Amino acid sequence: MWMETKTEVGEASRSRASFSRRALNALLLCTGDMKHLDEYMQDKLFVLQLAVWGLRGVARVILANNPLSGVLILAALYWASPWQGLLGTVGVLVSTLTAIIMGQDSAEVSGGLHGFNGMLVSLLMGAFSSAGDWYWWLLLPVCLGSATCVFLFSGLSSVMDRWDLPVAVFPFNIIIFLYLLCTGQDNPYFPHRQALPPGALEPNGTALIAVEVIRGIPLGVGQIFACGALGPSLLILGAVLLYSPLLAVHALLGSAVGTLAGLSMAVRHGSLYSGLSGFNGALGCMAVGGLFFTFSWRTHLFAIASAFLSAYADIALCNLLGTVGLPACSWAGTLTATLMLLMTGSLAAHRIPIGQVMAPEHNLRSRSQWAAGNTAERESTDV
């Protein structure tokens, strides 16, 4: 009887271990770039393929490439504001369909590269609109702006490819500028709110609420999607964590650095509390801290430097453009990341070719295998 009990306990233990292993493997299949899903979707209905491409485009906004991350991000946007969620959905679908009609590269379309600029344009049009939610006429510029992003992306890519640089969100920044300049603050059809410089004076310029400042750090991640609610911002951060824990750490770190930079420049308290001071720092930190460069102590330090530079550049651009009522959007983070990609020296040795960029953990593993192969090759040729 004792032997039978011992056998049953052993079988139960192995069964639990096997279940845990299967659960872990299933979880790992949901992380990273999920390339296996592309193979599975090849012979499926076009509508299902379009949904996956669109979800990858949603995740691309925050430098991820995972359709499940896109699902979590869309859920966060609908949670924060159903109207903003609808605008984002329309934007990513219109830009993706436009790319298909124009005959853009199928790998770029399926990877979501033609969806994220359209989504950002639609979200910012809704965020700056002063006409309120469910103003259906706003769908007209949303569709036109999202479609135009594809033309700009296609044109800019032929130029940026010469230096192996990503087009990133240059189309979004250009289109949203043109839209706000065309419509103006008092436009009778598409009115929008005026952007305030972060350095605008406040009556209580020295009284800070520490809890609100700390709360602004995760909000900085949500502000990449123009989301200023804490719960949805945490869900967006969870979507990044699902794609890459390393990228999620750099997102929070970059937002914290941006908040620190805002404190050092005494920006408006509203910018600190809402996360607007942190989102460009988060973008700059994520781009260098493992996405476009393999992770190491050197690139980690460069990522922190990139976050500081992005944050200070954002403050400067906001003060400059705020004088004419325009937002700086993500110009600072985009320009800083592009500058880092153009750098030479020790940082360039860690750079990943744009066509080979995947999840940071995969980049790190691939570089380790490449370095090990080169070492073995050198040893085999030594005499």
Automatic annotation (TrEMBL):
Q: Which UniProt keywords apply?
A: Cell membrane, Membrane, Transmembrane, Transmembrane helix, Transport
Bilayer-crossing residues are 134-156, 163-181, 221-242, 249-267, 273-294, 301-324, 330-349
Could you name the Gene Ontology cellular component terms for this entry? plasma membrane
- Compartment(s) of residence: Cell membrane
Q: Which GO terms describe its molecular function?
A: urea transmembrane transporter activity
Catalysed reactions, semicolon-separated = urea(in) = urea(out)
Look up keyword Membrane and say if it applies: yes
Q: Topologically, how does it sit relative to the membrane? A: Multi-pass membrane protein
Record keyword Cell membrane present: yes
* Principal place of residence: membrane
Family indicated by similarity:
Belongs to the urea transporter family.
Q: What is this protein called?
A: Urea transporter
Q: Which organism is it from?
A: Seriola lalandi dorsalis
